[in-house]
Design brief:
This protein has 23 helices and 21 strands. By secondary structure, it is of the alpha/beta class. It has a 7-stranded parallel β-sheet with strand order 11-12-10-13-14-9-15, with helices on both faces. It has a 6-stranded parallel β-sheet with strand order 16-21-20-17-19-18, sandwiched between helices. The chain has a 5-stranded mixed β-barrel with strand order 2-3-4-6-5. One of its GO terms (molecular function) is hydrolase activity.
């Protein structure tokens, strides 16, 4: 018999086990049985072709519509072109030198076709795909047992192993599998109406009805949700005991003076969030709060008021930005907002006043030494910088608050270093800010140990931004028109951005069958000699010296540069109200939320903004769906949901980015809010009564299975 811990080589044989390991990273019976079907097909129901992605290894259930042969151009032989349909859309399969397959690939037959998705003449294509056919009129002719079932599992596959090969391996394992121990207490299963784990694992792979499939999915989703919520409940429990510097609000300090001088009224959201932050800072336990809000919604004011409350308590605050460009801009912005309240030690300083100090890695030795002294002595009430701010050799007199801007740009190690910066063994309060809206279920799960706040008001005084997809492959003349639009805007005295995914002085990396991404340093001379000839073009990217980047941004802000060709260093924080148009090259290489962030750089003044999403991706791919969604709405919260749907959740418990092997196999952070909320409540109750899960060995085992040593270290630091 077979157990979950057995190696696949001993159960399936060396050849199949090697293919599963090499292609799908599956090594044990547990790995294979947790490799759930991606979807389920029913006889007669064909796979939607719309939404396939170029470069992905896809398995589609489709019907053959037609076949034809044509000669190959560069060598002898013929190409057999098979047109597949899902009933509404078509794609082709190309078999090179395999015209003999025409006898079995007859119009009207259906089957599974698996291969790498490519494009030929702007149409989707599978080249030399593997396939399994079945005859709708005679189930007994099928070569795969699962095809005779009403419900056909379709597994995530890869080059080297097909969905139906995975299905055969799963069937072979299930036929010899011992009953699987259930980690959930029976009382918990009964209370929530959950089937046992052994039954769920068998039914998820071999359901005989929709009811069986639904009950299996519900149980396995519950296990994922509960495992994660138990982990976060344990983290919250341990953090409650950490000491933090209490910084209660006072009535006659710098914070009150700043509020009196504000030239505008705080929004209701800013006041509400500000009160919550102020209450957190007054306690002797670390604040861990996530503040999200659209670009321009006023997060910086909320953060500055929190920093001033800390300064009133005689302590320091630090602000971390993802890039040196943004760090420098934050420092300038804070000084401007504070005015004479930010000029401590200078002539004309207010009483009370503080000092804002910038500290980055590329400063000169003299500048760095001076900034380090200001941080270490306490002369600087606010220290702004990049990750260089939390290196071991940087010390603070009494750091009580760390504000982290766009925290998804920072690694776990940097966030860990922040927590060791408090004085007298205390942990600083932490305020995490993001302009990327986060769905509630994501915040509840990914940021399970953070309190969350949102500024939802749309930026006041902002002009509308129109967004248009420029499909170069289908309509090459549209790109010429895009450059004309930029020229027209500059002719009206306005400015433009052109954003590229790569700098150009680095190797492009493995691009597969696609050309390398467009690079700033390659595009600039083409524009200077071509469609933007005569315009003043500036260059901005992350590898420039800090003084060069600052000089370019100052020149652009002053109107001395017409077009700024840049990488995503302009994504956050850059504010040039005169910029009205942005062209994003190879837009498909950016995420939905990133595209939304980028286009927020235009339309910041009195004139409307225009964002052009330039792409060569063919229509009908999931990428074009994604770009069309960005084109259709400027609602960041809606786009964040779409972004999550398209990218999947990724490994939310590890350092890996979305799109990699995920700890979440079935649970959807968007669709399963009820499951997550119920699991969260149970986890809090269980951990509250038994923090180490000593009395619940099954639950402790569930947590241990989710958290390997690498993830445990990650969680400890994050």
């Amino acid at each position: 018999m077979t157990t979950m811990a057995d190696r696949l080589s001993g159960v399936l044989g060396a050849k199949t086990a090697k293919a599963l390991a090499a292609s799908l990273d599956l090594h044990t019976v547990a790995d294979l049985l947790r490799h759930y079907p991606r979807r389920y097909a029913r006889r007669g129901e064909l796979t939607d072709i719309v939404g396939l992605e170029l470069g992905e290894y896809a398995t589609v259930l489709a019907r053959i519509e037609s076949t034809k042969r044509r000669p190959m151009k560069n060598r002898r032989g013929q190409i057999l072109e098979v047109v597949l349909t899902d009933g509404s859309r078509r794609m082709s399969c190309a078999f090179f030198g395999q015209e003999w397959r025409e006898k079995e690939l007859r119009p009207g037959r259906s089957g599974l076709f698996a291969g790498k998705v490519s494009a030929f003449r702007s149409n989707l294509q599978l080249s030399n795909p593997e396939y399994e056919l079945f005859d709708d009129d005679d189930d007994s002719s099928s070569t795969v047992d699962s095809f005779v079932k009403q419900i056909i599992p379709v597994y995530p596959a890869a080059a080297g192993i097909t969905s139906w090969a995975v299905s055969r391996a799963v069937r072979q394992v299930l036929d010899t599998l011992d009953p699987v121990d259930d980690p959930l207490p029976e009382v918990l299963c009964a209370e929530h109406g959950l089937t046992d784990l052994d039954t769920a694992l068998r039914r998820i792979h071999r359901p005989e009805s929709q009811e069986e499939l639904d009950s299996a999915r519900e149980r396995l989703k519950w296990d994922e949700a509960l495992s994660i919520q138990l982990i976060f409940a344990q983290r919250r429990q341990s953090e409650v005991s950490d000491p933090a510097p209490a910084c209660p609000r006072i009535d006659d300090g710098i914070a009150a003076a700043f509020d009196e001088r504000l030239p505008f009224e705080l929004t209701e959201g800013q006041r509400e969030v500000g009160e919550a932050v102020a209450a957190d800072l007054a306690t002797a336990h670390p604040m861990n709060r996530l503040l999200q809000g659209e670009v321009g919604s006023g997060k910086t004011i909320v953060a500055l008021r929190a920093m001033l409350q800390v300064i009133d308590a005689g302590r320091q605050a630090a602000m971390l930005a993802p890039t040196e460009v943004l760090a420098a801009q934050h420092a300038r912005s804070l000084r401007e907002l504070l005015g004479d309240l930010g000029k401590a030690g200078e002539l004309g300083a207010a009483d009370p006043a503080t000092k804002v100090t910038l500290l980055t890695g590329s400063m000169s030795a003299k500048e760095r030494k001076h900034a380090l002294l200001e941080a270490a002595s306490g002369e600087a009430g606010i220290v702004v910088g990049t990750h260089a701010l939390i290196q071991d050799h940087v010390t603070f007199a009494d750091l009580a608050l760390a504000v982290v801007d766009e925290q998804h740009r920072f690694g776990v190690e940097q966030r860990d270093a922040l927590r060791t910066r408090g004085a007298d063994g205390t942990s600083p309060h932490v305020l995490v800010m993001t302009a990327t809206p986060i769905p509630r279920t994501v915040a509840m799960t990914v940021y399970g140990d953070l309190e969350t706040s949102a500024l939802r008001q749309l930026p006041s005084g902002r002009s509308p931004i129109a967004t248009t997809v420029v499909p170069v492959a289908e309509k090459p003349s549209w790109l010429d028109r895009a450059w004309q639009r930029i020229t027209e805007e500059v002719g009206k005295g306005r400015q433009a951005y052109v954003v590229c995914p790569r700098i150009g002085d680095e190797p492009p990396g493995d691009t597969g069958d696609r050309r390398p991404p467009i690079a700033v340093l390659d595009l600039v001379p083409m524009l200077e000699q071509g469609p933007l000839h005569g315009l003043r073009i500036g260059v901005l990217h992350g590898r420039q010296p800090t003084e060069d980047k600052d000089a370019v941004m100052r020149a652009f802000a002053a109107g001395e540069v017409d077009v700024l060709v840049a990488t995503t260093v302009v994504e956050v924080g850059v504010n040039v109200p005169n910029a009205t148009v942005m062209a994003i090259m190879d837009a498909e290489r950016f995420g939905v939320s990133q595209l939304h962030q980028l286009r927020g750089r235009v339309g910041r003044g009195s004139e409307p903004g225009l964002c052009l999403l330039v792409t060569e991706m063919p229509d009908g791919t999931s990428t074009r769906q994604r770009l069309a969604a960005v084109e259709s709405t400027t609602d960041g919260f809606e786009l964040s949901k779409l972004d999550l749907e398209l990218r999947r959740e990724g490994d939310i418990l590890g350092a890996a980015q979305s799109g990699t092997k995920s700890a979440l196999k079935l649970l959807s952070l968007l669709d399963d809010e009820d499951v997550i909320a119920r699991a969260r409540t149970v986890a809090q109750q269980v951990v509250g009564a038994d923090p180490e899960l000593a009395g619940s060995p099954g639950l402790a085992r569930m947590v241990a299975e989710v958290i390997d040593s690498e993830r445990a270290e990650y969680l400890e630091k994050s």
